[in-house]
Amino acid sequence: VQLQASGGGLVQAGGSLRLSCAASARTYTFSRFALGWFRQAPGKEREFVAVISRSSGGTYYADSVKGRFTISRDNDKKMVYLQMNSLKPEDTAVYYCAAVDTIMTFTPVTEHDYKYWGQGTLVTVSS
After folding, report:
1. pLDDT at 99 exceeding the cut of 90
2. What does the DSSP 8-state code read for residue 44?
3. What is d(CA 51, CA 97) in angstroms, rounded to the nearest whole number?
4. Taking the alpha carbons of 51, 30, 98, 83 in that order, is the dihedral positive or negative?
5. DSSP string spanning 80-125?
6. What is the Cα–Cα distance from 99 to 97, expressed in whole angstroms?
7. What is the predicted pLDDT for the residue at 106?
8. Distance between CA 64 and CA 91 in Å, rounded?
9. What is the pLDDT of residues 51-92, one digit of tens each?
10. Residues 6+ away with beta carbon under 8 Å from 104
């Protein structure tokens, strides 16, 4: 399984971006994945941003993005999205999508829980 993240770019504070992540997997396989987004700012460790369960019934967000970011998925298209609104300079980072085959309601929030990773897409928020 390969993941390809896209949609990053330069945006002013207060603006919006939508990140996308495409999976090269069978539709049935993709539907079994919990899907997450992580980010790594310069000089910092990679951190959890958001996750959506395989059933799409469960989502969970880092406190720093709650109310501003929304994660969603389209199993038919084998895509996961991260809608980012009200962006702040501290959101500047390389954003990674990740996936793991798991049980229905599991929403993993740590890196070691995930098996597959995308290459990352850079988001830069200017003040």
Report:
1. yes
2. S
3. 9
4. negative
5. EEEEE-S--GGG-EEEEEEEEE--TT----SGGG--EEB--EEEEE
6. 7
7. 86
8. 9
9. 999 877 799 999 999 999 999 999 999 999 999 999 999 999
10. 53, 54, 55, 57
Q: How many CB atoms lie within 10 A of CB 74?
A: 12
Are 12 and 123 spatial neighbours (Cβ–Cβ below 8 Å)? no
* DSSP-based three-state secondary structure for 79: strand
- What mean pLDDT is reported for the chain? 95
Q: Is the predicted pLDDT of residue 103 greater than 90, yes or no?
A: no
Tokens, residue 110: 């740590």
For 39, the 3-state DSSP assignment is: strand
Share of the chain above pLDDT 70, in %: 100
Per the CB < 8 A criterion, the answer to whether 4 and 119 are in contact is yes
State the Cα–Cα distance between residues 88 and 84, nearest whole angstrom.
10
